Amino acid sequence: MRRKLLSAPYLVWILCGTLIPMAMVFYYGLTGDQGGFTLSNIAAIAETGHAKALWTSVLLSLVSTVICLLLAYPLGLILKKSGMGQKGLLVFLFVLPMWMNFLLRTMAWQVLLEKKGVINTILQSLGFSGLRLINTPTAIVMGMVYDFLPFMVMPIYNVLAKIDDRVIEAARDLGANNFQVFRYIILPLSVPGIVSGVTMVFVPALTTFVISNMLGGGKILLIGNVIEQEFTVGNNWHLGAGLSLVMMIFILVSMAFIAKFDKNGEGNTF
Amino acid sequence: MKNNKIRMVLVLLAACPLLAACQSSGNDSASDAQDSSAGKGQVYIFNYGDYIDPDVLKQFEEETGIEVVYDTYDTNEEMYPIIESGSVRYDVVCPSDYMVERMIQNELLEEIDYDKVPNAEYISDTCREFADSFDPGNRYSIPYNWGTVGILYNSRMLPEGTITGWKDLWKSEYSDEIMMQDSLRDIYMVALKILGYSANTESESEIAEATQLLIEQKPLVYKYATDAIRDFMINESAMLGVIYSGEVLYCQEENEDLQYVVPEEGTNVWFDNWVIPKNCRNKENAEAFIDFMCRPEIGLKTFEYLHYSTPNDGTLAMMSEADKADPSVNPDKKILERCEVYHDLGDDVNRMYNRYWKAFKSE
């Protein structure tokens, strides 16, 4: 009995924080204005505006995820190889920006990328012509990479740090060269870190609307913006909820895909 | 302090309609008793934030002996449910044009007794006619401020006279220098006016044509923004931008090269108006307050504080020649004939606009 009582706060938490909100999203998403059941809010994803926004979101978040992975993996290796004392400080330095407000960090990119921003001022004072950076897809990718990179670094570093050095030594003893050690030992052992890093970058990047608002200048519409606007200015909660259900399906499918890939990876692919 | 308390109550009440219902019925007797016991009583005013000269309120209290209880809101949409539910009862509210229309339709407003508001005669005929389109017969509302949507441009980069209308925002030589409003009605208004259609059109083919025009303009636009346009124009990150006339004087104070044009194709004119809700506490005090606000010298104080166009002919006569000649304060009558007030289009039409808007934004 007492044990059951101890679980009460968590049950309340799950009820208020997950089950009730989810039920409301399903309710709004599957009903129309008059209250009847309809799938039209979900089918609306096929409308040109929505489909294009979804496609842009997928594309930009994929690019950001790949860049994050390419930056984070070598970093993880370096952090692993560096000595203990240094290591703590280095990890700390990479995670430090996460302690600052997310909006503030994105706003800083605005200042950097603006037509008369920091980057262009430096370029022009060196005699180069200024770059058109802000309000482009590139600017959004830069913002996503900066904001989400720590989410890629942490899991990859954690997994790499846990690899027993003796395993690597054993591989060398048996005559493996650097490439073989990486390809057959380090990479397969770090797959769980990569998978969790990819999910933690791809999912928030796919649904963001703040970064595209601030760095896209209203010229690039992501699916997150569409959903946000349906709830605010569009005043059509049913459509907004319907589209977020589509996103939920999308995210579940991609997570399942990654999980499957992970299982294969640890099995025989590598 | 008082304001904060009231606001807290407001938030609580808004959060819980059930509680609100009990609260308002329970409050009736208490507040009525208060009204009769205290000499001239109070007037409960609900207005946009920072939208009145505090001195004016003080002067009103001193002259009439009526105590002002003052609360603020940020958007029409925030104000509406509070008045509708009656969770807090106000005597005077200041909604915008389309919201006045909606409040009249939903029978939330009390007719104004013009005998009690003699100063209303100063309201100009032009403004009365515009107000007639959202409040037929001017029965429920009296304009407080009004303005236009137009183009702000930097006259050091673009000589005066080069910018005359909306069509200039489609010229490729201004590529990357154009800032557009990031709100559905304002952006479609610009395109519809170029095409010679009404900003309140409900015709799908006209909306589709406007969408096409906006897609053509998109590569030239530097940024779609709202409040930020002001700052970008001041620090010269862009040469021209769509802006509300009320922001022009502030921009010019910060950067004297900025000039305002009311586009020749016509534009949107907006009105903020005093109204009296049906569930007000004291209609006489409400009318006394509105009458006070319609006095020409009070109108001038308001103008000096807010810099919006005044609907008051008496106030206009008292202004300096420079202000009278400023198109952001006193636009050309001929262009005004081509201007329109926004109407509430209803859910179906709004959704149609929204669909086209997303198609244009995702392009």
Sum this structure up briefly.
The complex is a heterodimer of chains A (270) and B (363). Helices cover 78% and strands 0% of the residues of chain A.
| CATH class placement of the largest domain in chain B | Alpha Beta
Give the structural class of chain A: mainly alpha
Enter the CATH topology name of the largest domain in chain B: D-Maltodextrin-Binding Protein, domain 2
Overall mean pLDDT of chain A: 88
Q: Report the span from N to C terminus of chain B.
A: 49 Å
Principal-axes shape call of chain B: globular
Main β-sheet of chain A, in a few words?
A: none
Largest Cβ-defined interface:
A-B, 25 and 25 residues
Find the count of extended strands of chain B (DSSP E, 2+ residues): 10
Pfam family, one (chain A): BPD_transp_1
Protein name (chain A): ABC transporter permease
Subcellular location (chain A): Cell membrane
GO cellular component, one term (chain A): plasma membrane
Fold and architecture overview:
The complex is a heterodimer of chains A (about 270) and B (about 375). Chain A has about 270 residues and is mainly α. Chain A is built from 13 helices and no strands. Residues about 265-270 of chain A have low confidence and may be disordered. Chain B is α/β, with parallel strands linked by helices and about 375 residues long. Chain B has 2 domains: about 10-140 and about 275-295, D-Maltodextrin-Binding Protein, domain 2, CATH 3.40.190; about 145-270 and about 340-360, D-Maltodextrin-Binding Protein, domain 2. In chain B, about 45% of the residues lie in helices and about 15% in strands. Chain B contains 16 helices and 10 strands. In chain B, strands 4, 5, 6, 7, 8, 9 and 10 form a 7-stranded mixed beta sheet that branches. In chain B, strands 2-1-3 form a 3-stranded parallel beta sheet. In chain B, helix 9 (about 230-235) packs parallel to helix 10. The radius of gyration of chain B is 22 Å and the shape is globular. Chains A and B meet through helix 4 and helix 12 of A and strand 7 and helix 16 of B. Chain A: Its main location: membrane. Chain A: This is ABC transporter permease. Chain A: Pfam families: BPD_transp_1. Chain A: It comes from Hominifimenecus microfluidus. Chain A: InterPro entries: MetI-like (IPR000515), MetI-like_sf (IPR035906).
